[in-house]
Amino acid sequence: HEADAHRTDLMTITRYVLNEQSRYPESRGDFSILLSHIAGLAKLLGLAGETNVQGEEQKKLDVLSNEVFVKALISSGRTCILVSEEDEEATFVDPSLRGKYCVVFDPLDGSSNIDCGVSIGTVGFYFYTHNIFGIYMVKDKENVTIDDVLQPGKNMLAAGYCMYGSSCMLVLSTGSGVNGFTLDPSLGEFILTHPYIKIPKKGKIYSVNEGNAKNWDRPTTKCVYLFIQFPQIFLHSLFFRYVEKCKFPDDGSSPKSLRYVGSMVADVHRTLLYGGIFLYPSDKKSPDGKLRVLYEVFPMSFLMEQAGGQSFTGKQRALDLVPTKIHERSPIFLGSYDDVEEIKALYAAEENND
Ligand code: P6P
Fold it and tell me: What pTM did the predictor assign?
C-alpha cells in the first residue's frame, strides 16, 4: 500500500507539463503535446540501450536518433520548421501537418564519446512559436521562412537536454526555472528528481579542452599593427590569461579543478549541478568558436540563466546573439554567475584599454 502511495504522488514530466499548461488557460495545449512528444522521444532513445529502436540494421546512433526525432516531431502536428545538427538544410513541415513551433536540436551531441560509454545527450530541443512572442496560433502557417529560426535566443520559449549516461535524465526549462527528470525504466516515466535546479553562485571547476591551448596563442606584447590586422589574436591571448588565472590565482585563492568530458551535455550538466564555468573560446582552429549557436549555445545559455547563472560569448550576452545562418558557431563561456562575471571583467578591461 505504501509503495502504491509512492507511485501515485510522483511528479512525472507529463503531470509537470500539464501543470505548466494550466498557467495559460487560453492555450490549446499544443506546447504541452510537443513537450510530451519530446519526452517520449527521449524515453525511446533512453530505453533503446543497445537494441535498435526500429529493428533496422544498426545505423550510426546519431543518424538513427536524428531520423527518430525528425519523424516524431513532424507527426506531432505541432511543428513548422526543424533545424538539426545532422541536416545541412532546415526541414519545412508539410502544410497539412504544420503546427506553430520551430524546433532546433542536436539529436546526439558528443556522439564521438559513444564507444567509450561516456554520457552523451540530445541538446537544444527548444521552440520558437512561429511568430515568436508568446504562445498563440500562428497567423500565416503558409508563410514559414528560415528567418523564423534566426532569432535571438532570448525569444525562445523552452530549452532542455536529455543525457544518456548511467541514467537517462531530461533537464528542461519552459521559462520558469530549471527542472530535472530521471527516467524510471520500471515505470517508463520521467520522474521529477531535481526540482528547481539553481547553479551555485561561484564554483571551483573550470571546464575547457586544454589540448587546444596552442591555438589560444600566448599573450603577445601589444602591437597596434597586429591588433588591427588580427584582432582575434588578442582575444585568444586574453583567454589564455583567464585560464592561467584559474590555475595560478593571483589573489591567494585555491586553483580551480579542471573537469572536461568533451560532451557538452555532460560538461554543462556537471556545471549546472556543481557550479563552475564551461568554456569553448574561438581559436586559430575555430575562429568563430566550435559550438553551434542555435542548438548548443542558445539552449544551454537559456538553462544557465534560468538556473541563476549566465552565458557570455566574449563580446555579449549569448542570448542576445542574432544568428544569420542555421549552423552558425560562437565562442561560449557559461556557468556560475560570479565565474562568468570574472571573464566578462577581463574582456571588458581589454576592450577599455583599446
Ligand atoms: P573538443 C562534441 O563534438 C561537441 O560538439 C560538444 O558536445 C563538446 O562540448 C565539444 O564538441 C568538444 O569539442 O574540441 O573539445 O573535442
Answer: 0.85
